[in-house]
Amino acid sequence: MNFSVLQFPASNCDQDAVHAIRRLGHHARLVWHKDNLPAGTDAVIVPGGFSYGDYLRCGAIARFSPVMQSVRQFADKGGWVLGICNGFQVLTEAGLLPGALVRNRDLQFHCEQVYLKTAAADTPFTRRIPADKPLRIPIAHGEGCYYADEATLAELRANGQVLWQYCDSEGNVTDQANPNGALHNIAGICNKGRNVAGLMPHPERACEALLGSEDGKWIFESLFEAGRERPAAGTP
Amino acid sequence: MSMTEPAITPDLVAKHNLTPEEYQHAVKILGRNPTYTELGIFSVMWSEHCSYKNTRPLLKTFPTRSPRILVGAGEENAGIIDIGHGLAVAFKIESHNHPSAVEPFQGATTGVGGIIRDIFTMGARPVCAANSLRFGELSSAEVRRLFSGVVQGIAHYGNCFGIPTVAGEVYFDRSYEGNPLVNAFCLGVLRHEQITRGAAHGVGNPVFYVGPATGRDGLAGAAFASQDLTEASAEQQRGAVQVGDPFMEKLVCEACLELLATGAVAGMQDMGAAGLTCSTCEMAARAGTGIEIELDKVPQRAPGMSSYEIMLSESQERMLVVVHKGREEEVKRIFDKWDLPWAEIGVITDTGHMVVRHGGRQVVNIPARKIADESPVYHREAVEPAYLQAVRAFRLDGVPDTVQPLEDLKRLLAWPSIASKNWVYRQYDHQVRAGTVVLPGSDAAVIRIKEDCLPVMSAELAARVESQTAPGQAFPEKYLALTVDCNGTYVYLDPYEGGKAAVTEACRNLACSGAIPLGATDNLNMANPHKPELFWQIRESVRGLAEACRAFDAPVTGGNCSLYNQNPNGPIDPTPTVAVVGLIEKPEHITTQWFKDEGDTIILLGEAVDLGDPLLGLGGSAWLQVVHGLKTGAPPRCDLEAARTLHTTLVGLIQSGLIKSAHDCSEGGLAVTLAECTMSRMEARGTPRFMGATVDLSEWPETRTSALLFGETQSRVVATCTSRDGCKVVERARLMGVPAQIIGKVGGERLTLKTRGSEFSASVDELHHPWWNSLAKHMNQPGE
Amino acid sequence: MKAKIIITPKKAVLDPQGKTVQNALAHMGYTAVTGVHIGKYVEIDLAPGTDRAAAEAALSEAGRKFLSNPVIEDFKLELE
Amino acid sequence: MKAKIIITPKKAVLDPQGKTVQNALAHMGYTAVTGVHIGKYVEIDLAPGTDRAAAEAALSEAGRKFLSNPVIEDFKLELE
Ligand SMILES: Nc1ncnc2c1ncn2[C@@H]1O[C@H](COP(=O)(O)OP(=O)(O)O)[C@@H](O)[C@H]1O
Ligand SMILES: [Mg+2]
Known about the structure:
Chain A is of the alpha/beta class. Helices cover about 20% and strands about 25% of the residues of chain A.
């Protein structure tokens, strides 16, 4: 499968995403923010980092990059797009995902391992995740507190768009397990079409036993499996 | 630009921190009186910060050679060490103490930014950072403001730049009140062929400026760092506080590494302390060439800047690049790709002079090599400080032994200097770049060097590497361990022993992780060198550092001196911080400090108590400070030979696959070490993994319980192995000459500790709570 | 000409920063404070001779589309 | 009663955020923009009946000592 990993000025988890995907046996290439998505793209990763320094608001400037126009077209045609951390922020700013990510409730940056409960298995991002297995994956963000108004939250839940929630090691969704104050412990969501997803934790940092966890690979494996079943729909 | 420049008077010279003799020497070098701008240039170039005029004779005593050294100390912006397979590392530590006292957040950000630039200036890709911090006591609201500002500043810069901050240390002591220490370390990776020099080679080559426009930032910062810090100096500091822009730095770094791969670069240097002045002078001096620049071409942020201001500005994130003539287009293409401001500002000449023009006039004309190399050198007077007599005379007679060992242990665990630093490192992204194998929280951090850690290669180099690589051969991944250490209390109480102990502890931390030292970088945070008693502290601690670096084969590749650290109540404790980087042969040798499995055997390597020490390891100990309010007594002796034997033996045992965990004994002694072994493994947020233990020390000859539990006798490690291997490990250690003893067994949910005179047992949870949450608790205190 | 844009968090959105400042003020004895809201202030310098109406239209758009995020923020534009 | 405090980076101090937003606006075609400065906006609700002069004095002090960082920022207080 061919992944395009976007590269904004000061993206800094772009190489990590490429590394993880290649290690898992698939193709990944970096796409400069001034370019368009290359032909043959099967899925897009909007990686973590501090695009444009996260000045003004996280992801606010990146969403105006030329490459985001082509990502929007790609997503409109059903192409798979996964935003990680800053990438999630970019996707919400761009309106490809609902809601927003605001300052962590304790106003501090948090870099730590968390557990994630997978709340919806019927998406190309979650289908391979073993049932009832809390994923142990690191977070590293200062503005990861998910917010959406009541109506949006109700819709997210009605449509099963909440994909991951912060939980404890047993899979219980508790306030204690919530690192940033996200509403309903939301760590990641998808759009209505179920082809665009974003999450604050970093699965690409949890794909090797050497780094302490391999749980992140299930998210990529899900995409690989989806890719095997369906040739890329969104190729521009 | 302002046309009227002040006349050079003795008063003005003094304001520039130049002595009359230094000024006369400057006049001799020039053959005339300096212009105002030239006076400014001499002032910063001959400040301690840039010239090391008070410390150079001492720095010469450091060991700086080993077969692995590719670029040695003092040659360039950072030293470089070979790590095999054509790969190398560049690393260095640097202080930003005074700026952090004035503005903690920005002082820390610009400290981190500066050291990252020093590393990519060498052509290396920065891959990890560390820091060493000192503050006053957390009961003061002002100290808390400084502490949280500094930590946030480090986090902001490193996180945004995308470098994992993987290790560090923090101590709290009254001597640092008002004068915090902020030392930042950075390590980068490159291939041997990618080493870049900060030399202005090639007469006729154009000189490029890249990075944000120059403003009146941190004017004379280098000179400022070379004065006693007083309230007045903080207020008076001319110019604006420097603000760090990590976003800009990331772009500058990527663009420079990309540019280096084109082969268009003849030399490159960051504009650090003393900005344009230092970079132009040093580059010309290194190459033996001259350099001519035109200030009207320098991008400027503020209107009407004078030549003095432009030359001395310390605006951040700027680089000076000398380009091979004819290759200018490539430079422009790459800087434009990254949307970076740049300008061609000058040319390399054969005059040996640094010439600066502004507004059609020549404002500077100085022989570059002379100002860079003929800076004054002082052999300062050293006199042993009087306080040391009382320190050496101190005996334990008046100090009662511990009566409540468990209570004492809990107080020690909650003492901010010993307590877990998770409140700090949780704010740093320590995993970006997907290479951190051992996260902060064990003795040393371990990172994996993989292919994408390297800078972009030129086509030619890529082809060469490819031709030397067998088909299908994987990239030779490397594992590096690093740690930063210094117990300032020991150094205060005995600078020589304390200096040795700092290096020894760092090397012991590496050994516990399975690593062999490659080299060291040090930051001498010291007080005023003009005071003989304070200079004696500097001299003696350097003697200790140098001896220890020799003993462990850890050559010093560079470092930094920060003098004049003091607060209104007196000088800081002398704090020669040491960062040591080591190599771990194979991933299976990577070892962490926490106990692993039920039933494992616990072994103490090293002597439980140094019976030859009249203070039994309690001099300068955390226990004396916390329980008795005493900061005195000769610190534990540091026997380098014994330490070396311990380290090589431990690494040998690890390499044979016998050791499951290893943790060094430092502040708080054996009891704190054991407690940390049972509770320091963190699985995830709110999910520590406890592993209790039962330890019996009652075999030991009659001695103070406090010495056995909390004494800080040097060269000790608590290690575990399977119960099957216990005797083998003890035998092999003894055979190598390392005292070794089985002291207990891993298991259960409690830590039970028995000595001849005492016994206690506590649930690991009960110990973990005060240790883990202490800093957060202090920091959440409201208001005053 | 100068434009000033004030961006404030929507009332429904958690404003931990405002809350922290409020608590700190209370601790310092500023007891009359009943609420604190923290937002952003953006000052924009415009080239001399810029048309006022055009600037107003352009900056309202920038304020809505870019400088603020309507999911969480309100904004107010002033030209002077 | 309400107090409004505007905190802006000092003119001589680098404002990387403002500069980055300015560049972004230029890229988006807002060509008339010649400078952008980004600061903070703090709105403080005061209990009804609060004495104006006392509030002014108290909040000036808070603004100087606590809400702004006088080393790098200026602040302006308005009571309404
Ligand atoms: N300022 C800091 N930044 C990052 N990590 C830190 C910092 N301070 C302490 N740590 C980490 O916390 C752990 C314990 O530190 P310390 O008590 O100094 O260990 P030791 O006594 O073994 O040197 C180490 O892993 C260290 O790297
Ligand atoms: Mg240690």
